[in-house]
Amino acid sequence: MKNNTQLILALTASLICYSTYIVLIDKPFSLQAFNLFLFPVILYFVFIRSRNVEQSPLKAVRVEGQILYVYKQVFNINDINKVVIDKTKRHGVFALPYNQVDGKTTEFIFNKDAFESLKSYLLQNIPNVKIIE
Predict the structure, then answer these.
(1) Pair 58, 118: CB distance under 8 Å
(2) Cβ neighbours of 77 (radius 10 Å)
(3) Do 54 and 61 form a contact (C-beta atoms < 8 A)?
(4) Judging by DSSP bridges, how do beta strands 67-70 and 73-76 pair with one another?
(5) Is the pLDDT of residue 103 over 80?
(6) How far apart, in whole angstroms, are the C-alpha atoms of residue 122 and residue 63?
(7) Residues 120 and 126: beta-carbon distance below 8 Å
(8) What are the pLDDT digits (tens) for 16-68?
């Protein structure tokens, strides 16, 4: 939801900037010209915002008692049977595809150097969890 709000605000700001531009130069609305104002917003959300990499996944994932916290999401560890932890050439991937919240999978990418420490932490703190790589 946070990303949607930010995207809507960014699009609104682009529209306001473009509207100011066409009023100042006394030109009619042009979709092509508006796209020039929209282009930086699209670049930001596609290439920069979507590439947020958690440097320390053990700050994002923690187990306290019978509760697994993933950022602000809360899960009962008895409900966690499978966790996806994998790595690519550049990043590690964490996901709870079998414990969706409102139809969305809790997931994030992280620094691949922390792969083994995150895997060990989960195996130690969540009984009977299966790691899917």
Answers:
(1) yes
(2) 18
(3) no
(4) antiparallel
(5) yes
(6) 8
(7) no
(8) 877 887 788 887 877 777 777 777 777 666 665 555 677 788 888 999 999 99
Taking the C-alpha atoms of residue 81 and residue 96, their distance in angstroms, rounded to an integer, is: 9
Residue recorded with tokens 């930001």: 44
Tokens standing for residue 1: 């939801």
pLDDT number for residue 68: 94
User: Residue 48: which residues within 8 A CB-CB, separation 6 or more?
Assistant: none
Q: Which residues contact 29 (CB under 8 A, 6 or more apart)?
A: 22
pTM of the full predicted structure? 0.61
* 23: phi then psi, degrees, rounded to nearest 5: -70, -40
Is there a contact between 122 and 83 (Cβ–Cβ < 8 Å)?
yes
28/22 Cα distance (integer angstroms): 7
Long-range contacts of 76-79 (CB under 8 A, 24+ apart): 77/125, 77/126, 77/127
Region 112-131 average pLDDT: 92
